[in-house]
């Protein structure tokens, strides 16, 4: 049998089939493995993507909103969100093997712990455990839960305590993986090979998340830093003094990218309106926009420019820099600085330099600047002109070279001291100039310094004092002249006062008519000489500027009344009328200098009387207006004298000049009167005006603004005379009109007649009863048709003296004749012309209210009769070194009933003060040894003599002399030559002060002690008490009737304090009882009557003593 051969083809086929299936199986296995890898990568990428997206958005949100101290709500939010993330990651878990399931819920826990701490990680863990129940059906056993809790707490602790970011993530991830691995090994026997990929994926995921989170954190940090730097830079730009801007070019147009600066706020520029907008001529606030566009274009070419232009009217210094990128200009940075103030200061410096240069060049002083070595650096024109050199000739030379040898030595010495001592040197230098003039200079050499405070040079100023020295010598000569005049006037007035005083004494003796005529001429000549001396002294004081005005209260009407007394004597026997016309609205009291005002008026009136032989002198004082406590008073003195020509008026106010030489010879005088008046009026704020025509008379007028005393009132004009009638007989029409006006202001019905015969005819019907009788007849005693005493007696026969009172208007001489008549033939009142409003008012007041005048005298005498008579015969000490003056005042005082002792000097006066009791001391100011001032100081040092009035004897009645006298303790001043009337006035005045010791109801000594012995203050207090409390009872009763009980108590309480201050014990006791009754609501009328009675007792004494 043949052996069958194998079927090779089949075998091959079978082998190939097996190979095919085997390869197919390998491919399938490869594909399966590949799919598993792809599936794993897909799941891993999905997990990583979820984490990346979560970290990118959610984590950034939590990082942004995280506070330095996160709130509990924030931690809850973090825990909840990350718990949800962990749940999602469980759901997206990847199965590595049957035993190993990979998910990244641990990463969610790490993120939660990183951001929220323990609270957040616990919340996240709880949410994940709950989600496992729903997903896996179980959260694990107790051990697994405990391990999970420990891993979470441990992770939170590591995050909280580990400062380093990487170490924080490494330790926390290691701790949580180790905890999980330990638990897995414990429960599941899983090999390391199976667990290694799990741990690797977890580590990789944690590293990915931590690095990605770190990137986000650092990116945000850098962005924050960049943002902060940008904000800081913008803030810095905004706070810079000027402003900075950045410009880019877009579509061939420039536009602002940035513009910031403090200056923008000043100009009201809002950067938002310009940023990002094309810059055009209409869209900029530069005053020259075309210039700015040209500069931008120039800088875009690569140049840096600095220029000055204006921005909203302010000068700006602008700098523009190009900004390069890849060597191409991509922008412009510009800065602008406001240089307006700088330019203004620069301009002022230039102006000041120019002004200084002009000042130096035009200065009359010689000004020169030197280098430190003493050579001339610059000079002004005055120096060149003075020394006769050109400027170029002096430059670089020593100035001392042009001086004389002695002057050069002195100059070099002082220049060296200036440099060595580094201080200004001032000295005088005399030199002979090129024109041979001798000039005196005050030289000032002052060093000036460079920036290192080293001496750079010296500035010299030479001030010409040649004329100043001459003026000083003239002033010294004038002072010597004034001192000489003062000494000589004292030497002249001392015997002159004696002549006037002795003449007065002699006139009181029995002498013949011829002797009386001689004596009158002696007295007149003496007074004329004294007036001349006083004019010269006043003018001397005016020249020296030593006239000081007073500011004291005074009564203008009373001053004018005193003026009438003087003018009546000055007019003498001249047949002229002097009329004083004042308005009835003048306040009772002004504040000013009455002495100087009276001096001016007296001087002007004296001139008017002197130069008027017939006619009248009309003196007028009227108030133009009153406002804000000041009154404008217009004074006018008009005469019908010789007049003054315009040429004479031109030199009228020149010293020592009169209208012409014949005037001086005829009328006398120094020619200083009007000069003095003009100066005094100008000092008081007025100007003296003159209007005059030759042979027609003159008019001098001025207006003064005088302060009105706050307590001043218009003088009351009503005396209860309404309806009464007066007949005025006066032949001068102006005088007649003036008197009628005054009477009309007193509400008297006035009729006037112009002659004696007309007067008699007017009175005839009144005797027959056909007409009403006249209550008053005022008659001029010097009317043309009168015949002396016969006419006077004829008038009296026509009148019923029981119903009609007569007032005679006469001269000084007529007054003496009237006084000599029997009382039944005298007039009820005698007024000496000129007649003032006040004198006429007082005359009627005495006739209408005679009791006010007579009872006052009776009351005063009843209280002080015993002491008063003794005081009138008391002792007076006179301190006077001049024998004649001592004789005059002694004789006058003795005629008044005083015993007089004379001390020849101050030491002797002090000795006499201790020997006897004195009522007065008269103290001459200028005595040898101890003068009157020092003597008075010594007297006032002894309290025993405080009550004795000390009266100064002086020929100087100026304010300074009075103030000095009062300052040392004198009480009053009696001017020489001694006037008997003034002497009597002073004695009466200070006798009243002595009589104040007898004021009923007051302990005067105790009251004065409370006022430190100031008598004048006590006198003022008494007057105010009399004004305010005279009608106290009426005030209390009136307040009670109105129901103002608090007012009644206040009035009583106030009076109680006043009574205590016045040491009025009885009044105080009565007021205390009244106040108690008012307080307790008891009947108080009896107590009020007692208080008013005591007030009446005190005020009665005050009135009687004329305090």
Strand composition percent: 15-25%
Structural class: alpha/beta
**How many strands in all?**
29
The number of helical elements comes to: 36
For the sheet with most strands, the description reads: 7 strands, mixed
CATH class of the largest domain: Mainly Alpha
What is the CA-CA span between the terminal residues? 198 Å
CATH architecture of the largest domain: Orthogonal Bundle
**What Rg, in angstroms, do the CA atoms define?**
61 Å
Question: Helix share of residues?
Answer: 55-70%
Could you tell me the CATH topology label of the largest domain: Arp2/3 complex 21 kDa subunit ARPC3
Which geometry do the CA atoms define?
elongated
* Total domain modules: 6
User: Are there runs of 5+ residues with pLDDT below 50, and where?
Assistant: 661-668, 851-872
| Nearest-integer average pLDDT | 79
Strand-helix topology:
Elements: H1 8-65, H2 72-91, E1 94-95, E2 101-102, H3 105-136, H4 142-161, H5 165-187, H6 192-239, E3 243-250, E4 253-260, H7 262-267, H8 289-300, E5 305-311, E6 314-325, E7 328-338, H9 340-362, E8 366-371, E9 376-379, H10 381-387, H11 391-394, H12 405-421, E10 425-432, E11 438-449, E12 455-464, H13 466-507, H14 513-544, E13 552-554, H15 556-571, E14 576-582, E15 590-592, H16 594-610, E16 615-627, E17 630-639, H17 646-650, H18 661-667, H19 673-683, E18 689-693, E19 697-708, E20 725-729, H20 733-745, E21 749-753, H21 756-768, E22 776-780, H22 788-798, E23 805-810, H23 812-820, E24 829-832, H24 837-848, H25 850-872, E25 875-879, H26 883-895, E26 899-903, H27 906-913, E27 920-924, H28 932-941, E28 950-954, H29 959-968, E29 972-975, H30 980-995, H31 1004-1010, H32 1015-1029, H33 1032-1041, H34 1045-1061, H35 1065-1080, H36 1085-1104
Helix pairs in contact: 1-2, 1-6, 2-3, 3-4, 4-5, 5-6, 13-14, 13-26, 14-19, 15-16, 16-19, 21-22, 24-25, 25-36, 27-28, 32-36, 33-34, 34-35, 35-36
